[in-house]
Each structure stands twice: as C-alpha cells, then as structure tokens.
Amino acid sequence: MFFANHINPASGLVVRNAAAAGRSSKSFYDQKLWDAAKSNYLSAGDYVFIQFGHNDQKKDSARHTDPFTTYQEYLTIYVKDTRAAMANPVLLTPISRAVWHDGTLEQSLGDYPAAMRQLAAKLNVPLIDMNVDTMALFSKLGEEFTQNNLFMFLPAGKYPNYPNGIKDKTHLQEAGAKQVAALVAQGIAKANLPIKAYVQN
What we know:
Radius of gyration: 17 Å
Number of domains: 1
Structural class: alpha/beta
CATH topology: Rossmann fold
Shape: globular
Largest sheet: 3 strands, parallel
C-alpha cells in the first residue's frame, strides 16, 4: 500500500487495495473476489490498476492460465467490466522476480508480460510496464543488494517469524515495496494518465 504515499493528500484521491495473496487472474475471478471488488469499490471515474502473472504460472488447475489464451481472456473481463462501470482500466505487467544466472537477472515470468502488452495494444488500454521497469532497477542495483535489501532474503536467527531464514525470490521486503510503488508513480507519468497531476514521484 506504499503507492498511497505518492498521492497528493490535497487531491482527495483514495487508494483502495482489492488484491488477495496467492490469486491468479483466474482464481481471483472464480472465487468471486472481482465481484466483491466491483460491489465494494468500483465507481464511475475510478482508475483500476490490474496486475496478474506470478500465480498464473502455477501448475494447479485452480490458478494456471495460458499467457495468450486464458490469461488474456480473464484480463479482458476485468478491462470490459471496468469500462462498463465508466471507470478506467490500467494494465501493469508483473514485476520481475529475483532470479539471477551468472550475475544476470533473468526474465522469469515467461510470456505473461508479452501477452499483457499485446492485449493492452489490442484493447487500447494504458500499460505500465512494471516488468521492464523492475528488471532495469534490479539489474542496476545488482544481485546481492536486490536480494538482501528488496526481496525476502532473510538470514537465520534474525527475525522471529523466520527463525531458519528464508530466500524468497518473489515477495518484497518493505524497502522493495517502496521502490516498486515509486516505479508505479513514475509509470503513471510516462503513460500520461490524467491522474498524473495528483501523483508525486
């Protein structure tokens, strides 16, 4: 929720987080979480930021989607429903994982970012390419710094919730979440969205 820190308080804009951990574009819809988000939050004029991909890669049937078929189909539902409510959809490609090989950050999201870019162009939806932007940021900061300071790479014996430590290449520490939120704010400006006037980088 650190993105809210980039909103000018005088704007009156409110950031509402309808995300749910572990969901894919498919399971978020199938579990009626999208219905709840529409009912509880969605109003005309809103901006709906839509980002899926990591959990769409999972192999279980409840979550898995194919990038250029079912993934795009579920994203299309979110886009069309948002527009039907006279609101504004924005697609965000999934952020990079901290997966490195011989010192080089790997593209670990398969075809999902490309599939979202293709759909954004087809449906004329604004796109914030978080995959490209996070890969650039993490590559600049380097493997060791990125893993130890941005992602959940935690040593054993330091944190009570992780007594044995953890090496999580997907989920972010607070510092990482703040960096990614800043990239979203910058992406709003690059995409020339009307709300850019209310967003502070």
